[in-house]
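pasting for the record
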Amino acid sequence: MPEPGRTPDPNVRLLGDVLSFGWVLPACLAAGGGLGWLVDRWLGSFPAATAVLGVLGFLGALRQLLREADALEGRRKPPPGPPAAPGGTGA
């Protein structure tokens, strides 16, 4: 629990969000492939549903990663230093 009167560092939250990226792809693949395997056992059609739901899980993971990356882009802090010139390098 944070100390009273102390504001949490936004970079710590950003680090946690970035570290969660590594779990999205395997979790979605496991969920899609696992559900496909269960459907295949039920219907006796192995590996049709496993392949289809595995691919859908992969596509869902890519979509989620892109959405999270887009949300993080808006929270990124600019690097310290003087602001850049609006027209380019100016040299």
